[in-house]
């Protein structure tokens, strides 16, 4: 059974804080080939497309395109604010390894 990705309350709160929904934007999470481990995440504010999976809370939205979705099955999209910086992070159960920065992974 394929579990859809989920978004934490911290991630939605950060989107609200930066005014993404008020600007009509969504957080796009995509998977592309590249990076030091084979695949890399692209995370940016974007418009949603008609074939995107849309995860939402109020007017805050996270969108994932249909090509990236199989790579993100069961993943958790979160936001972290640490001494090294603040960023959206992906906890991906499909990744067999990842690089130190957390933006690149292999399956």
UniProtKB/TrEMBL annotation:
Pfam family, one: Fe-S_biosyn
Protein name: Iron-sulfur cluster assembly accessory protein
NCBIfam families to which the protein is assigned, alphabetical: iron-sulfur cluster assembly accessory protein
TM ranges: none
Matches recorded under InterPro entries: ATAP (IPR016092), ATAP_core_dom (IPR000361), FeS_cluster_insertion_CS (IPR017870), HesB-like_dom_sf (IPR035903)
Domain named Core: residues: 6-102
GO terms (BP aspect): iron-sulfur cluster assembly
GO molecular function: 2 iron, 2 sulfur cluster binding; 4 iron, 4 sulfur cluster binding; iron ion binding
Annotated organism of origin: Salipiger aestuarii
